[in-house]
């Protein structure tokens, strides 16, 4: 099963309100479980040769406007979101400089960060030119699908 298929399945389960889904397809097993704590545990198991990690994803929770917590104000600009679940890295290695810092000018296609997912390091590139206004995630922390990572003021 491809990452995009897994991401689409997670989105579908979160939106549908189903509390639990388990799929076993050609030796690849995925179990998605949503709960009242607004998180779903996703456990994937593959054949012994390649074991997948366990991730958490947000689940859909209905909340009335009075019960919704105040959301911190997002800096002006366009947010660059995580295209996948994984671990966010600002640089190519612990002894390397970060790809970008606040105030840096970025060009379309320039690497902004790396997200490690299932032992693969995926470079996340700018989809447009602009200036980095804010970095919303700390280095080496897990990120969720569609989580804002950067705020970039477009040209």
What does this protein look like?
This protein is mainly β. The chain folds into two domains: 3-58, no CATH class; 78-154, Beta Barrel (OB fold (Dihydrolipoamide Acetyltransferase, E2P)), CATH 2.40.50. Helices cover 9% and strands 41% of the residues. The strands form three sheets. Strands 1-2-3-4 form a four-stranded antiparallel sheet, with helices on one face. It has a four-stranded antiparallel sheet with strand order 5-12-10-7, with no helix packed on it. It has a four-stranded antiparallel sheet with strand order 9-8-6-11, with no helix packed on it. A hairpin with a 2-residue loop joins strand 1 and strand 2 (28-34). 23% of the residues are buried. Mean pLDDT is 77; it is low at 36-46, 48-57 and 59-64.
Helices and strands in order:
Layout (H helix, E strand, L loop, with lengths): L2 H14 L3 E6 L2 E7 L4 E7 L9 E4 L19 E4 L4 E4 L15 E2 L4 E7 L2 E6 L4 E6 L5 E3 L4 E7 L1
Antiparallel strand pairs: 1-2, 2-3, 3-4, 5-12, 6-8, 6-11, 7-10, 8-9, 10-12
Share of residues in strands: 35-45%
Provide a count of the helices. Answer: 1
CATH fold-level assignment of the largest domain: OB fold (Dihydrolipoamide Acetyltransferase, E2P)
H-E order: HEEEEEEEEEEEE
Q: How many angstroms separate the termini?
A: 38 Å
Extract low-pLDDT stretches.
Answer: 36-46, 48-57, 59-64
Give the strand order, joined by hyphens, for the main sheet. 1-2-3-4
| Radius of gyration, taken over Cα atoms and rounded to an integer in Å | 17 Å
Structural class: mainly beta
Number of strands: 12
Shape: elongated
- In the CATH classification, which architecture of the largest domain applies? Beta Barrel
Helix percent reads under 10%
């Amino acid at each position: 099963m491809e990452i995009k298929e897994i991401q689409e399945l997670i989105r579908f389960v979160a939106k549908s309100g189903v509390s639990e889904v388990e799929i076993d397809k050609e030796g690849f097993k995925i179990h998605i479980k949503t709960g009242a704590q607004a998180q779903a545990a996703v456990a994937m198991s593959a054949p012994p040769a390649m074991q997948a990690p366990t991730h958490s994803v947000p689940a859909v929770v209905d909340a009335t406007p009075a019960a919704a917590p105040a959301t911190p104000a997002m800096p002006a600009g366009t947010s660059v979101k995580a295209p996948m679940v994984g671990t966010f890295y600002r640089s190519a290695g612990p002894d390397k400089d970060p790809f970008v810092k606040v105030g840096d000018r970025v060009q379309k296609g320039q690497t902004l960060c790396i997200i490690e997912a299932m032992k693969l390091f995926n470079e996340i590139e700018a989809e447009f030119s602009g200036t980095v206004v804010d970095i919303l995630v700390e280095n080496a922390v897990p990120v969720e699908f569609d989580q804002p990572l950067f705020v970039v003021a477009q040209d």
